[in-house]
Write a structure and sequence with these properties.
Blueprint: E1 12-14, H1 39-49, E2 53-54, H2 56-63, H3 89-111, E3 120-123, E4 127-130, E5 133-136, E6 142-144, E7 149-152, H4 155-163, H5 169-187, H6 190-197, H7 203-232, H8 239-249, H9 252-258, H10 273-286
Parallel strand pairs: 1-3, 2-6, 3-7
Antiparallel strand pairs: 4-5, 6-7
This protein binds zinc ion (ZN).
Zinc ion binds at residues 52-54, 178, 182, 214, 217.
Length: 300
């Protein structure tokens, strides 16, 4: 992937050296307004929705009884947001990909007569406070609609490469583009509709909706790649394969298989490997968000 020298975003917050979030991966207690969630719940939530989720706390919340997270989180005092150091190669990569998504979506929204509001991206280590509750690195990267921020612990890229078998810069870019896809859904009002459904439908039905939401974010990631490549020729040989491989490795069926469990389609929240590949590819081939209507699609 060709990205070095391209514009970097101003919207990256570096919290990696903050004390505030705490370093514990599985500390468990104190989540969701005092409701204690033990390791069991987290393990189940991880199976169901850990990779590239939209607000995985929603899933945790469902599992812990479905009470809304209306309670305002006690914000820990944090230093003012600051940018990552200029010599940090990985942070530079993330900032450049984020800037590229800004350029693409600004253009797409403008052409449709709208205005794109740029999301922030937070780099953290271990755990951090979000408007959706405490975010944990173990949940994988996620987007919080309430503060319009993408959260990522860059250690996830090691997991993606070494544990999930999905190396490559373009695979890493796809991860960010997928989360930004959730931001686009938020701006389009799709996330709010999903929220309305929560509590009104059964868990199995909600999971099925979640799959459509996630596949649409994959499709939006493809729309980004199409437009970015048109404008800036970012793609190199092997890039598409690397993203398609990542999409396959984080399919629900693949994750359930690799965690040694049975494959349970009713518990899917992100879609199968084949579905994730298909929708990413749909965005990539068409470059059009109209092609990403996963909610109306008969066959995913
Ligand atoms: Zn997602």
């Amino acid at each position: 992937m060709k990205w070095e020298g391209n514009r970097e975003s101003d919207n990256v917050e570096d919290r990696r050296d903050d004390e505030g979030g705490g370093g514990g991966g599985f500390s468990g207690g104190g989540l969701l307004g005092g409701r204690s969630i033990g390791i069991g719940t987290i393990v189940v939530a991880l199976l169901g929705g850990w990779v590239l989720g939209i607000n995985p706390l929603t899933i945790l919340n469902l599992l812990s009884g479905g009470a809304p997270t209306a309670q305002v989180q006690q914000q820990q005092p944090q230093r003012p947001a600051h940018r990552p150091p200029a010599d940090d190669h990985m942070a530079k990569f993330v900032s450049t990909v984020l800037a590229d998504t800004e350029d693409v979506w600004k253009d797409v929204f403008a052409k449709a007569g709208g205005t794109y509001k740029e999301p922030h991206l937070v780099l953290f280590r271990g755990a951090t406070q979000t408007a959706c509750g405490q975010g944990q690195a173990a949940m994988g990267p996620f987007y919080c609609p309430a503060d319009q921020k993408v959260y990522i612990d860059l250690g996830f890229y090691e997991t993606l490469k070494n544990r999930l078998g999905a190396p490559g810069e373009f695979a890493q870019a796809y991860v960010i583009a997928h989360e930004v896809g959730h931001h686009v859904q938020n701006l389009l009002g799709i996330s709010a509709k999903m929220d309305q459904m929560r509590g009104r439908v059964s868990k199995v039905e909600y999971n099925a909706l979640s799959v459509r939401l996630e596949l649409q974010a994959d499709c939006f990631a493809g729309v980004w790649a199409y437009n970015a490549n048109n404008s800036r020729q970012i793609l190199e040989g092997g890039d598409i394969e690397s993203a398609m491989n990542a999409a396959a490795k984080i399919g629900d069926d693949a994750l359930q298989r690799s965690s040694g469990g049975a494959v349970v389609p009713e518990s899917f929240t992100h879609g199968t490997s084949a579905q994730r590949q298909r929708w990413f590819n749909t965005g990539l081939k068409t470059g059009s968000i109209k092609a990403c209507d996963t909610f109306s699609a008969r066959n995913l």
